[in-house]
Amino acid sequence: MAAHTVFRTVLRNEWRLLMADRPLRIALGLFALLLAYALANGVVWMRFQERTAEVARAGNVERAVAIEEELTAIENGAEPASPFSDPRRPNVLGGARGRHTAVLDPGPLTALAVGQSDLLPYYYDVNIYTNESSFHQNGEVESPLNLMVGRFDLAFLVVYLLPLLVLALSFNVLSEEHEQGTLALTLSQPVSARGVVAARLAFRALLVVGMVLAGALAGTMLAGGFGAPGRIVLWCVAVVTYTLFWFVLAAWVNSLRRSSAWNATVLVGAWLVLVVVLPAAINIAAGLLHPLPSRVEMITVQREASNEAVNRRSELLARYLEDHPEMAEGVVADEPGLGALAWAATDAVNRRLEEVTGEHDARRAEQIALVRRYRFLSPALLAQEVLTDAAGTGDARFAAFQTQVRDFAEHWRQFFVPAILADEQMSASILPNTPRFRLADETSADVTRRAGVPLALLGGLLVFVSAGAAIGLGRVRGAD
Amino acid sequence: MQTAESGAGQPPLLEARGLSKRYGATQALDSLDLAIEAGEVYCLLGPNGAGKTTTINLFLGFVSPSGGQALVSGMDVSTHDRETKHRLAYIPEQVMLYRNLSGLENLEYFASLGGKGSMGRERLTDILVQAGLERDAADRRVSEYSKGMRQKVGIAIAMAKEAEALLLDEPTSGLDPKASNEFSALIERLRNRGVAVLMATHDLFRAKETGTRVGIMRYGSLVTELGTDEIGHADLERVYLEHMHD
Q1: What is the pLDDT of residues B178-227, one digit of tens each?
Q2: Could you give the 3-state DSSP secondary structure of residue B38?
Q3: What's the gap in Å between the CA of A17 and the closest CA on chain B?
Q4: How far apart are CA A128 and CA A408, in angstroms?
Q5: Interface predicted TM-score of the whole assembly (ipTM), two decimals
Q6: Angle CA(A165)–CA(A168)–CA(A171) in degrees, nearest 5?
Q7: Model pLDDT, residue A139
């Protein structure tokens, strides 16, 4: 009998069995509700992020217009509204009043995988006082694993709950046939156990994957369309691979010819270990092996450095000019203005902070490296990584954004600090030349290259369990 | 169904040649030689553990032989799994079906797996009726069926498959006398169509009534073989008990 005929026959029978099985239909209905809720959650978050980004950009324009109007008015003889917020002063124009907000737009598939977009900052107010503490004030800096786990979105549903549905649908795919006595009758026909189980699982996989992918595509459409086809394909491939891993694992366990109860226990245990225990254990190991410096220490250092800097401002300014001759044009070091002294103190605090945060960042990088090294142990970690990366909500995109904001902040300083040191006055004519943040976002090719590694590892795990299932099912002949 | 008996030179539909099966230290079947031609009903008698079910499992390819060969139409089951299963039908002691599906849906599924493709609802219902199931029972869920009704669906599956040989493992166990009689009548009809039947049973009466030959097994060996037209019910029982008490 041709394999495709067996396949079609089993699929038709599975459909009839599903239609006749009320609890199974209820379970699928519940999953569909959760799916809709997860999608709604993701879409709401993405819309919020889009609105926030719009507000931030509008703020940039409004501030620029207000400053331009005031500078023009001052040039025409008006007095500044306040001597402390006089836009002619470079430390005001380059400071909080004239700040520029650098914005990271939501990832193309944020609605499907919120990822770290609700944990890590997606906008920074950049001004001359932006320093390392600005990059450590927001976001989760304690746990690299927590950074990988977000709110109840579609990715969460896929990574954590979908395996449970898969196991509910497949834990007894063969053992049930054996227990209800239909296996002998089935295998007395010219078919193999491998073929029948594969067809049964294919039906269930089509059902589950079909629901998730339909939901994902609906979510993508709701959240703005199919502008990133590469990412969508990557997302779908990760979902299919991860789902198949659990189905095939269930087939492998079934091939051991134990009872349905035994299969259920082993498979739920596997879920617990692979989805919950191993990721948590890797996280604990990362924390123990590479502990992060205390956040309190960071704050204390900042305060101490700030106090010390205030007391030693003149000395610090001299040293600063020595270190940054490019900033020193027109500055008379022995008669510094208040702005120059303040900047010298600020710079000293920044340098001390860089030492502390550098250590923090190094430890965190070690933690992430450890998690990456052992992620192949958990298909959940691998799937999560691919899904968030494909969605544009993974840590790599945020890290790239932060790096670009750092560079932009440096550029901003280089624009304003010489004027501060020289105690120059700014005019409206300089405004068109002030730096503007332009994000060089990652391309689909970048994402595919990066996510290809965890996806390949996930594929490797799938191949491994497939081999086990194929060998095990090949031994099933129909009699105990 | 095959309608003519195997001609001269044709291999027997079912044949065991020195067929043996060992499970660890236990010799479940020891060098069984057996040949069943078209239109024959061969009944294997013997106590539990005599090797009857093992013989059937070997013909089905459910277990691999430790020695010898199980042949279906001259083809070795071990090397021609699919081809031999196309020619075989199997009815276990308990025909277990998908309880949430109707008899008709079960028949359609197993007949399709057996290689018969889509036979159409009317044709399948006719087969169920030929197998003795009432027409209005065909669309009822199997969970409402008695054991006898399930056995009839099992027969219908064999009929739909047009199997050349039928393997029955204690098929009348637990059936009431009326259902057993109906079952025997069905086997008789299949035999008349040229089907070779190998039936493992404890039921001496049914073996005498239905079978053309009986073989008595003990400790995995065939200890004697008799034609049912050679002996009466009482003789069969006496011979059986004699061998059991040796």
Answers
A1: 888 888 888 998 899 999 999 999 888 888 888 999 999 999 999 999 88
A2: coil
A3: 7
A4: 10
A5: 0.89
A6: 130
A7: 47
- Mutation choice for B interface testing from A13, A172, A188 by most B CBs within 10 A: A188
- Domain coordinates of chain A in residue numbers? 1-480
The percent of residues above 90 in pLDDT, for chain A, comes to 51
Q: Does A449 touch chain B (CB under 8 A)?
A: no
Non-local CB neighbours of A380 within 8 Å, separated by 6+ positions: A159, A160, A163, A274, A275, A279
Residue A142: its pLDDT value, please? 43
Coil, helix or strand at residue A453? helix
Identify the pLDDT of residue B6: 47
A189 in contact with B, Cβ within 8 Å: yes
Q: What is the DSSP string of A71-128?
A: HHHHHTTPPPS-GGG-TTSHHHHSSSTT-EEEE-PPPTTTTT--TTTTTS-SEEEE-T
Euclidean distance between CA atoms A268 and A274, whole angstroms: 10
Q: What is the pTM of this model?
A: 0.84
Q: Hey, is the C-beta of B183 within 8 angstroms of any chain A C-beta? A: no
What tens digit of pLDDT does each residue of A409-424 get?
999 999 998 888 888 8
* pLDDT for residue B1: 39
Cβ pair A278, A378 in contact under 8 A? yes
CB of B151 closer than 8 Å to CB of B178: no
Interface test with A, best of B57, B62, B95, B198 (most A CBs within 10 A): B62
B contacts of A13 (beta carbons < 8 Å)? 98, 101, 105, 109
Q: Which of the listed CATH numbers 3.40.50.1970, 3.90.650.10, 3.40.50.300, 3.40.50.150 matches domain B14-95+164-245?
A: 3.40.50.300
Q: Max CA-CA distance within chain B?
A: 54
pLDDT band at A350 (very low <50, low <70, confident <90, very high): confident
